[in-house]
Amino acid sequence: MFLIAGLGNPGRQYEKTRHNMGFDTIDELVERHNIPESGIAHKGMYGKGRIAGEKVLAVKPLTYMNLSGDSIAEFVNYYKLDPETELIVIYDDIDLEPGQIRIRKKGSAGGHNGIKSMIARLGTQNFYRVKVGVGAKPKGWDLADHVLGRFSEKDREVVDAAIKEAADAVEMILEQGIEAAMNHYNGAGKKKKTQE
Question: Among this protein's residues, is 42 annotated catalytic?
Answer without folding.
Answer: no
